[in-house]
Amino acid sequence: SQCAPRRDQYQRQRHAEQRRATLTSAGLALIAALLSVSLSLVLIAARRALALRRRAGSAMSLLEHAADTGAGFVLVVPPIVLGAGWFLALRNITDVFAVAPVMVVAVNAVMAMPFAIRAIRPAYDAASERHERLCLALGISGWTRLSLIDWPSLRRPLATGFAFAMALSLGDLGVIALFGSDSVQTLPYLLLARMGSYRTADAAGLALLLGLVCLMLVVVADGLGREARA
User: Fold this and answer.
1) How far apart are CA 127 and CA 51, in angstroms?
2) Are 210 and 171 within 8 A, CB to CB?
3) I need a labelling partner for 174 at 20 to 30 A (CA). Which of 15, 61, 101, 112 fits?
4) Are residues 118 and 168 in contact, defined by beta-carbon separation less than 8 angstroms?
């Protein structure tokens, strides 16, 4: 009879931890995906502007080459290595666990950029080829051009890149394994904790939930990508 209240309390605590980890994962993944897509769009636009300037007569610059291939270099370094480097750099400056959300968002956003760029760049280049002369003739540039001219062509590729970036951020364990704590827990971190304490049933449920969410995002991204190519 005394075990029942304790069991109920444990169940409530476990469900509360799962809800908190789910909300934390969703929030961090959402911010990381938005940041990744925004940075990718800025990098693609800068590369396109440099390419148009080179077409006008100047030679390909080092800056254009870096904008063209630089984002892919992040795939050479695993997220756990980036997280470990920032952990060692920040441990004598500030409380590394206090900046955990910032580090998780920043590293996941950068790691997802190559995939977002691959989804967005073809549509952006095609839209630029179609509308470049018209925009130059009318003096349309910046945010006005993006919202009025390029947005219909970029809407689905941006959604594809966003879905891929969010799926990658949701499933990442590299950074949160170093910066995670009782106050900042994501679903992968909670899954690791459950496995470490031999709660295999809880770990299996969390793995199923995480896998289903990531699978849904990948399917959505793949569907949007096919419609954009069509």
Assistant:
1) 15
2) yes
3) 15
4) no
Rounded to 10 deg, the angle between the 187-196 and 200-229 helix axes is 150
Dist CA 49 CA 215 (whole Å): 36
Largest CA-CA distance found in the chain, in angstroms, rounded: 85
Residue 176 has pLDDT above 50, yes or no: yes
Cα separation, 74 vs 205, whole angstroms: 32
Domains and CATH numbers, the chain: 3-122+150-229 (1.10.3720.10)
CB environment 128-152: b (16+ within 10 A), e (fewer): beebeeebeeeeeeeeebbeebbee
- Distance CA(123)–CA(223), nearest Å, equals 16
Q: What percent of the chain has pLDDT over 70?
A: 83
Binned at pLDDT 50, 70 and 90, residue 1 comes out as very low
Q: Which amino acid is at 155?
A: R
b/e string for 41-72 if b means 16 or more Cβ within 10 A? Answer: bebbbebbebbeeeeeeeeeeeebeebbeebe
